[in-house]
């Protein structure tokens, strides 16, 4: 019988060879998964760009009381804090709080981004501190959008 004589001694060069082989195998696996990660990243970027584009068309109509003059007079400031232009803005007073609001300019044709109008408000001793309003408008993202708010003085 012929026995093969095997030298089982391990040299430093053999250890480096095995280490290099393992490192290249790991690198190969990571490289294969990279295109999938790039595709997911591109999809997230597209979704973010789409959301930003939609935000550019949206208007956000709001209102707040502002004090005017030294006699305790108030005005209702109606504004568009969205990035899009609001068209055909309508105002419905849900609860006037015993205040008199001069809303003769409604429906407004349009409000640009950060544009506002001020409406005079008559307040007396029986007036509440709040007024409930409902705004309806059209913008680039759709029509008949609305928002109900309570405005405090």
Description of the molecule:
This protein is of the alpha+beta class and 153 residues long. Helices cover 30% and strands 39% of the residues. It has 1 helix and 8 strands, in the order H-E-E-E-E-E-E-E-E. The strands form 2 sheets. A 4-stranded antiparallel β-sheet has the order 1-2-6-4, with no helix packed on it. It has a 4-stranded antiparallel β-sheet with strand order 5-3-7-8, with no helix packed on it. Strand 7 and strand 8 form a beta hairpin.
Topology of this protein?
Blueprint: H1 12-57, E1 61-68, E2 73-80, E3 86-95, E4 100-101, E5 108-111, E6 116-122, E7 130-139, E8 142-152
Antiparallel strand pairs: 1-2, 2-6, 3-5, 3-7, 4-6, 7-8
Briefly summarize what is shown.
The protein has 153 residues and is of the alpha+beta class. It contains one helix and eight strands. The strands form two sheets. It has a four-stranded antiparallel β-sheet, with no helix packed on it. The chain has a four-stranded antiparallel β-sheet with strand order 5-3-7-8, with no helix packed on it.
Offer a few descriptive terms:
153 residues; alpha+beta; four-stranded antiparallel sheet; 8 strands; rod-shaped
Global Rg = 34 Å
Which strand order spans the largest sheet, edge to edge or round the barrel?
A: 1-2-6-4
Fraction of residues in β-strands? 35-45%
Helix content: 25-40%
Number-wise, the strands total 8
- Structural class category: alpha+beta
Which assembly state applies to the chains in this document? single chain
How confident is the prediction overall: mean pLDDT?
Answer: 85
Detail the poorly predicted runs: none
Largest sheet: 4 strands, antiparallel
The arrangement of helices and strands along the chain is HEEEEEEEE
Through-space gap between termini:
107 Å
Principal-axes shape call: rod-shaped
Number of helices: 1
């Amino acid at each position: 019988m012929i026995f093969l004589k095997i030298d089982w001694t391990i040299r430093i060069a053999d250890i480096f060879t095995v280490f290099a082989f393992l490192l290249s195998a790991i690198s190969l696996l990571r490289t294969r998964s990279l295109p999938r990660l790039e595709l997911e990243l591109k999809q997230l970027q597209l979704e973010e760009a789409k959301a930003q584009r939609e935000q550019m068309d949206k208007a956000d109509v709001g209102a707040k009381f502002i004090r005017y003059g030294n006699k305790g007079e108030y005005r209702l400031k109606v504004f568009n804090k969205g990035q899009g232009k609001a068209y055909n803005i309508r105002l419905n007073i849900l609860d006037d709080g015993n205040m008199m609001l001069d809303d003769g300019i409604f429906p407004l044709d349009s409000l640009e981004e950060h544009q506002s109008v001020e409406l005079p408000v008559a307040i007396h001793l029986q007036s509440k501190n709040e007024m409930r309003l409902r705004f309806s408008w059209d913008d680039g993202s759709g029509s008949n959008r609305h928002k109900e708010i309570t405005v405090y003085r």
